[in-house]
Design brief:
The protein is mainly β. Strands 32, 35, 36, 37, 38, 39, 43, 44 and 45 form a 9-stranded antiparallel β-sheet that branches. An 8-stranded antiparallel β-sheet has the order 22-23-24-25-17-16-29-28, with no helix packed on it. The radius of gyration is 31 Å and the shape is globular.
Length: 778
């Protein structure tokens, strides 16, 4: 015990961190204890208790010389205090804050008590010290906070960067005290002490960048027949780290990774003008603290950098930079959320970027980043991409030396054509390469027709790799693509108004209503000058997870393709919808048999009704076991088994389910009415963490093209739960949408457009449901 205390535990792990060029050093505590109401010392306990009863507070400190040694003349990027929760009494209600404060008085592990920072006789219950304290002496402002909730155990981190930086500049280092913000409220937590389970002791995790060299550059312009610029660089070595918001010529190293293959996405559409699109999704990411996002509300810049490899050599092919703060459409561009930040700008003035979602988590696989851009302001790379061997996308910021989130795409891609690239991400990089020399250029604006000038910013290491510029970098101007207007209405993005949008799940007894948020893209071709009608396609870009208490997260994924529908700019063509579902239209012996019966059933409803979906219960819908007999979904890999699972009462084997869709019904539409066929697939994940795609779904409904309209829609579901003749049918339900003028659509202002429609599903966990869709654009 005492031998362990006499030994300084230094760095136990060094690895590449998320900061560009930084290494991570982990130090173990050299002293910890906890304080309680009695004047006793608990420095030999295997745990550190924090609770209200007895005023329990934890103390942790780290050897200052070890911190200085770990830096080794480098630059501190971040510092995190990590504590391991070994016991949680799960009485935290909706969650309560646990704060870390910087201690302002010297204390010792075996001398700290409720009354004394250093008690010379802690066993006698008397305060034996010249200067007392009242259960700790500390800075009143918390350094960091963790929202403790029920069920959370394992390692948690507190950002103590500001304190460690203060220690390095002369502030006394007496460690930290950990306490509940509201000490009268319920909740008990016990962290592992350094006398407890090995490798679970308190740790201080330091991200450190080596000293870098900032060159001083004096550009000298020499007039010639062909204007050129020859910068003369005078390098002055300075041990400072200057974050650069622009992309480096090559990918930076040590970026955060997505933990699961095929969860990240890069999509580039070069269709011209408003039809240009860029999507980068970084899903199921590494765990990290929210502080790595910096403060985009006022200080932190975000930049998307895309690199294309040719024979294994990467080159920067495009970048998109979003500055901090700003006003977009008379409101703040950036907003903070519980786990990160959101950026929204329908004007796409910042390099075409329209939306950024930043979500952090300390739980592996729960962090998420989504970036979307569109329109002529996007700086798209030339397509097709080389992708030899990889395309690399990195979203970086300039907070504390730079944080970075990366996905690599090795192919074969889903698409790589002259106007369209799409691919899913590679597995995470386990052991990234060692950081090397980089050199970045920051172009400056020049008058039209003049030569480009540049102020190069060099980042020099003692031994730069061969082949990289060293003394005389040459800046090459990048041409700005021009927008060539195309005929037609173009592409509009419907950002769902989650207050007025809804999915109404009408059950036999009562409805269940949820409010979706996400995006739908509507792409319309040229308008016929005689009829005012244009053909359109609708695509679901993203619907956020919809939590339903007792069921799980309802997830809506894109599916399709679906048939083209229409937008009537002048009015006149009927665009009403009629959805009709029936759980039992007769007996069937296979899915093809049921499909044939469903076609006849829909025809009998009227000339405009066609089959939308059908299934014969007890036969696999698709996959390798398509049309084979089944009793549960596990019998049907990559598909589902229609009918109830045995645990839910068994299937209705041999019953034919049928859904019919009728459109172009009813009265003539008004100007601006639109009909839309949206491909989607609904699943349910029971973990209820409001993140879709990270766990196997408990319910998988078949992909379907659901009709929507801005006119009138009606829905009916008969033989609910396969009960013939019990008068338990749902509907008819009806809903009216709201049209939008084609002028507004062409201007990409979809605010107020309302699309409505119906879908029928059989034998879900909620039994049969008729889903009423209401999507309102904001």
């Amino acid at each position: 015990m005492l031998g362990k205390r006499a030994t300084l535990l230094t760095a136990i792990a060094v690895m590449l961190s998320t900061s560009a060029f930084a290494a991570t050093t982990t130090l173990s505590t050299n002293g910890d204890t906890y304080l309680r109401g009695s004047n006793q010392n608990d420095g030999t306990q295997t745990f550190l208790r924090v609770r209200s009863s007895g005023d329990n507070r934890a103390l942790v400190q780290f050897d200052h010389a070890a911190i200085v040694s770990a830096l080794n003349a480098g630059v501190l990027i971040t510092a995190h205090l990590e504590l391991f929760i070994e016991f949680n009494n799960n009485s935290w209600g909706d969650g309560r804050e646990v704060d870390v404060h910087r201690v302002t008085r010297e204390w010792t592990e075996l001398g700290a008590t409720h009354n004394c920072p250093i008690d010379t006789n802690p066993s006698n219950s008397s305060p034996d010290c010249a200067v007392q304290w009242d259960n700790g002496e500390f800075d009143a402002t918390p350094t960091a906070t963790f929202l403790q909730t029920n069920g959370v155990t394992g390692a948690v981190q507190f950002d103590v960067t500001a304190d460690v930086q203060a220690f390095l500049t002369g502030t006394d280092n007496f460690g930290w005290i950990v306490k509940k913000r509201s000490e009268s409220a319920g909740g008990v937590i016990e962290y592992t002490s350094r006398d407890g389970t090995a490798n679970q002791e308190p740790k201080l995790i330091l991200d450190i960048a080596p000293p870098t060299f900032t060159p001083t550059s004096t550009p000298t312009d020499t007039p010639t027949t062909t204007p050129t610029s020859t910068p003369t660089d005078t390098f002055t070595a300075t041990a400072t780290f200057t974050p650069n918001p622009n992309c480096a010529p090559e990918p930076i190293l040590g970026c955060r990774q997505s933990l699961q293959e095929n969860k990240s996405l890069l999509l580039i559409k070069d269709k011209g003008g408003l039809k240009d699109k860029l999507i980068f999704k970084w899903i199921k990411g590494e765990p990290f603290d929210q502080t790595e996002f910096g403060d985009p509300l006022s200080a932190t810049t975000y930049t998307l950098c895309i690199y294309d490899e040719n024979s294994g050599v990467p080159s920067l092919v495009t970048q998109a930079l979003v500055p901090p703060g700003g006003t977009c459409n008379n409101r703040d561009c950036w907003k903070s959320t519980k786990t990160g930040f959101r950026f929204k700008d329908s004007t796409t003035t910042n390099d075409g970027i329209q939306k950024i979602t930043l979500k952090s988590s300390l739980v592996p696989g729960k962090s998420k980043i989504v970036l979307k851009g569109k329109g002529p302001n996007l700086q798209l790379p030339p397509l097709p991409l080389q992708q030899d061997q990889k395309v690399i996308a990195q979203l970086k910021n300039d907070f504390n030396g730079g944080q970075c989130f990366e996905a690599r795409f090795s192919g074969p891609p889903k698409k790589n054509e002259n106007d369209f690239f799409k691919d899913k991400g590679d597995p995470a990089i386990t052991f990234p390469p060692t950081p090397t020399f980089t050199f970045t250029f920051t172009p400056t604006a020049t008058p039209a027709g003049s030569a480009a000038t540049a102020t190069p910013t060099g980042t020099d290491t003692p031994t730069p790799p061969p082949g990289l510029p060293t003394d005389t970098p040459t800046a090459t101007p990048t041409a700005t693509p021009t927008d060539t207007p195309l005929p037609g209405l173009g592409t509009g993005t419907c950002e769902l108004d989650d207050l007025n949008s809804s999915l109404r799940l009408q059950l036999e007894q009562s409805p269940l209503i949820v409010n979706p948020s996400g995006e739908i893209e509507i792409d319309c071709a040229a308008t016929d000058p005689g009829t005012g009608i244009t053909q359109c396609t609708c695509e679901l870009i993203e619907i956020d997870a919809i939590p339903i208490l007792g069921l799980g997260d309802v997830c809506v994924f894109p599916a399709g393709p679906c048939p083209e529908t229409k937008y009537d700019c002048n009015g006149g063509s009927p665009l009403d919808l009629d959805h009709y579902s029936d759980h039992d239209i007769g007996n069937c012996t296979s899915n093809p048999d049921c499909s044939a019966q469903c076609d006849s059933f829909c025809d009998a409803l009227g000339p405009t009704h066609v089959q939308q979906a059908s299934s014969c219960e007890g036969f696999c819908l698709d996959g390798p076991n398509a049309n084979m007999a089944c009793t549960q979904d596990s019998d049907c890999p990559d598909s589902s088994c229609p009918g109830k699972e045995p645990a839910a009462g068994g299937i209705h084997a041999g019953e034919c389910n049928c859904s019919c869709q009728g459109d172009e019904l009813g009265s003539p539409s008004v100007a601006g009415d639109i009909a839309c066929s949206l491909g989607l697939q609904i699943t349910v994940e029971t973990d209820q963490d409001q993140v879709c795609g990270n766990t196997p779904p408990s319910i998988v409904l078949p992909p379907i093209c659901g009709a929507l309209t801005s006119a009138d829609a009606e829905g009916v579901l008969e033989h609910v739960n396969s009960k013939n003749g019990n008068n338990n049918d749902i509907g008819p339900l009806s809903k009216s949408g709201a049209p939008l003028s084609c002028t507004n659509f062409a201007a990409n202002n979809l605010a107020g457009l309302e699309l409505v429609g119906y879908l029928g599903f059989f034998d879900t966990t909620l039994n049969d449901i008729l889903v009423e869709q209401t999507f309102v654009c904001q």
